[in-house]
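ok so I'm stuck.
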Amino acid sequence: MTLGQTQIYRLSIFATLLAFVVVVLGAYVRLSDAGLGCPDWPGCYGLLGAPVSEIEMQQAAQSYPGSEVDSAKAWKEMVHRYFAGTLGIAILAIMIISLMQKDKHDQPIKLPIVLLVLVIFQALLGMWTVTLLLKPVIVMGHLLGGFATLSLLLLMALRMRQRVNPVTRVPVQTNLKLFSWIALIILIIQIALGGWTSANYAALACPDFPTCQGQWWPSMNYQEGFTLWRGLGMNYEGGLLSNEAQMAVHFTHRLGAFVTLLVLGFVAHVAMLRTTGSIRKVGILLFALLAVQILLGISNVVFSLPLLVAAAHNGVGALLLLAMVTMVYAAHSWTVREVN
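replied:
not stuck anymore, here's the structure
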């Protein structure tokens, strides 16, 4: 590995950790109702930071008469933007150094370019989240974009790690390759359902568990609940769906959680019992994360969505995705000996 590739590897690890922080911060901002803490973008009430002094508060109120100036919420939003901006700079550095190393036959080039395009699109989604007043499909897209950025950064780090410690690639004799891909797709769908639930403020539509408003299958409005595009100019803060529509969204997320538990649990079981080495360790980690995530999800309902628990639910969801990306990569790239 060249010096430049070593720098890319270290930058990729740093950017992956930073992307995880950005994802969790984004969840915290959304869950603390600070998504519109700054009604403009990229600044906040025309400032580089949040308004703090009495004069700044007055000027902000005059410039944006339709917004409630809340310095605490504004700072939450700006801290998230600062971290996201730093992440963008790190990804730009990865792409520049990668292009400088393009003469190396084993240097990934397409992935850094995709990452840079994705983070630019993420910035646009962040702007639209504010300017379109928390439109659910934009909020969900911004969430998925953050998870996609996190996953691709991990993939970049794994690929660069392969240059540090090359391993001999041998066929995996189990069906772990197919199973891990299926599990990854199901997990992505479940993350999207979670994002849709959060964006529509439906996390407490079913305040009891395991029933929903005292029923095993309540009356729900799926058509309204899963209408992706609605009119412009409406403020979606607090949610606009009817109770039946919110229940449909929440209940679908619960069903998705059950399917995800079964499929990812099966993959973890296969990895733990039918392989050895690093893949077995990933399987153990996946199983542990699943257990924690289920407990956090139930706690969100039972304890009426505590802020830290809800943010942790998003964070562990991100860790589950990282574990599955590692599993897919490992099943195709790492040396595996099947246990007889």
